[in-house]
């Protein structure tokens, strides 16, 4: 019977799915790289609801108070996550449109959310009660920002209508319209040193600094970023700000009159968000080591040390990144993507040993009493405490001497096995070691006895070594005399071995060639010396 030929479907190689990777793989990790890599992913929180797969995470904001819950804005929902368990504990859906931005008040009790209709909503973070609705923007409210210090009554917002508004939250009234931008206002931040100072960034390529005490005169300073500004933040000192737009991050000196200090162009696509991070283990000294975290549509998170103006760490994610947040206690890092995923990393805290003076095993004072974790005898680390403690100025550091590794011939010398030591050196092939062993045997008056006792293969090694190195000026004095002694003592063995005669023939030719060279050099010296003497007299 006839059968139809089976058709073979075409096959194509499938690339494995990308996973977050860092640039420190395969190399000796630096301490800071180890720190950022310690933010392990306890879970990769996919879409928060079934429809969230299609909506990006537009904003991530951490509460400034313990346990540092965080809010993620996506679609028409703001989801609150527990700072302890990292699980979603509640959702806010009472919005007029899609959630564009979110920000906690300085005490963590209120959460402000801007939506796509231009309204700014104020909720109680714990009960999700809708307290205020601030209407005034004609387009989406992309910027929501509370003062950082003690002011709990006011709020700053900015929108796609190019207006920045300063609100009195209690009365739901706009106190000031801060005008000056000519395009969408997409980002901003409050000053860490003054509740009346704010900064905003716009798609008109400009960054404006505002002081609500002199709001009638417009912005107090204007900086030109050169590209649509996606994010702008104050640095901890309050005298510097960082802005991102395009694939560029810039550092500005506000106190110095808006001077541009540095430009970082390490991303390949638009830098979408910035936030401040800290490097340290909770001590007061380490906590001052602040870093700028930047995320981009190229899928990379970069860590920038603005005190040295260099990138200290980089990590790749499989999706374009839109938002980033870092908890104030340096324990959690959250990154939102354009496909509705949250990458949550939590650093595993180290258990610290506390001595009587209040110092941890790292040699650093612990700031807060509740942070101290005293090891008990029931824990195995109780018996190994102090082994990794860093020495302080008052300590005396005692180091163990490094163990010296002896070569094979050195070990044989210690056992007075001179012939075996000589053969071991010849076998190594290192001419310097061989000559050193010969000199030691001369000092011990054992060299000639070793030569007399060499067997056929061992004698072959010695003659071959003499052929290669006897004419070298640095060894010639010792090796030429030794070659004569070898011929004198082992003449019978040389006559009976074809290979030994071949080596000696080659040695003879090398000596004759070296003699001719030396003779030629002497003749040249005899010609040049009188000329140099005559030239010296004339000069």
Question: What this model shows, in words?
Answer:
The N terminus is likely disordered. The protein is 22% helix and 31% strand. The N and C termini lie far apart (114 Å). A hairpin with an 8-residue loop joins β11 and β12. The radius of gyration is 39 Å and the shape is elongated. It has two domains: 316 residues, 7 Propeller (Methylamine Dehydrogenase, Chain H), CATH 2.130.10; 131 residues, no CATH class. By secondary structure, it is of the alpha+beta class. The protein has a five-stranded antiparallel β-sheet with strand order 1-26-25-24-23, with helices on one face. It is built from nine helices and 29 strands. One of its GO terms (biological process) is positive regulation of transcription by RNA polymerase I. Pfam families: UTP15_C, WD40. One of its GO terms (cellular component) is nucleolus.
């Amino acid at each position: 019977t006839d059968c139809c030929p089976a058709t073979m479907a075409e096959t194509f190689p499938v690339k494995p799915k990308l996973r977050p990777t860092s640039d420190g793989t395969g190399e000796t990790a630096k301490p800071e790289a180890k720190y950022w890599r310690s933010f392990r992913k306890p879970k990769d929180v996919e879409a928060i609801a079934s429809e969230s797969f299609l909506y990006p995470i537009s904003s991530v904001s951490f509460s400034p108070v313990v346990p540092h819950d965080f809010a993620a804005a996506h679609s028409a929902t703001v989801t609150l996550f527990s700072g302890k368990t990292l699980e979603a504990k509640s959702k806010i859906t009472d919005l007029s449109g899609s959630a564009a931005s979110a920000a906690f008040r300085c005490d963590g009790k209120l959460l402000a959310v801007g939506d796509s209709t231009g309204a700014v909503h104020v909720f109680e973070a714990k009960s999700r009660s809708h307290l205020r609705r601030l209407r005034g923007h004609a387009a989406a409210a992309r910027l929501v920002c509370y003062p950082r210090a003690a002011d709990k009554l006011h709020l700053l917002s900015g929108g796609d209508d190019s207006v920045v508004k300063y609100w009195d939250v209690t009365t739901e009234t706009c106190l000031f319209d801060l005008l000056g931008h000519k395009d969408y206002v997409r980002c901003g931040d409050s000053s860490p040193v003054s509740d009346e100072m704010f900064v905003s960034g716009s798609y008109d390529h400009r960054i404006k600094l505002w002081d609500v005490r002199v709001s009638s005169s417009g912005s107090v300073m204007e900086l030109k970023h050169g590209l649509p500004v996606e994010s702008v933040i104050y640095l901890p000192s309050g005298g510097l700000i960082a802005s991102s737009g395009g694939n560029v991050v810039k550092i500005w000196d506000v106190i110095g009159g808006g001077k541009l200090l540095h430009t970082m162009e390490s991303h390949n696509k638009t830098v979408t968000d910035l936030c401040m991070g800290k490097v340290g283990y909770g001590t007061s000294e380490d906590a001052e080591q602040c870093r700028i975290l930047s995320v981009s549509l190229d899928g990379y998170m970069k860590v920038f040390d603005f005190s040295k103006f260099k990138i200290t760490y980089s990590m790749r994610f499989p999706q374009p990144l839109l938002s980033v947040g870092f908890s104030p206690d340096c324990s959690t890092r959250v990154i939102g993507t354009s496909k509705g995923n949250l990458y949550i990393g939590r650093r595993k805290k180290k258990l610290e040993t506390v001595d009587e003076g209040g110092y941890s095993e790292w040699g650093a004072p612990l700031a807060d009493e509740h942070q101290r974790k005293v090891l008990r005898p029931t824990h195995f680390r109780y018996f190994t405490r102090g082994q990794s403690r860093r020495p302080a100025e008052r300590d005396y550091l005692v180091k163990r001497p490094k163990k010296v590794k002896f070569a094979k011939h050195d070990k044989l010398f210690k056992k007075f096995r001179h012939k075996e030591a000589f053969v071991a050196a010849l076998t190594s092939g290192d001419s310097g070691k061989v000559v050193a062993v010969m000199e030691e045997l001369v000092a011990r008056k054992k060299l000639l006895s070793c030569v007399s006792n060499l067997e056929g293969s061992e004698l072959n090694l010695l003659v071959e070594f003499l052929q290669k190195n006897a004419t070298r000026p640095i060894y010639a004095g010792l090796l030429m005399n030794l070659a004569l002694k070898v011929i004198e003592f082992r003449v019978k063995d040389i006559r009976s071995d074809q290979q030994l005669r071949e080596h000696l023939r080659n040695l003879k030719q090398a000596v004759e060639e070296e003699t001719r060279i030396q003779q030629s050099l002497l003749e040249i010296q005899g010609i040049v010396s009188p000329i140099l003497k005559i030239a010296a007299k004339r000069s």
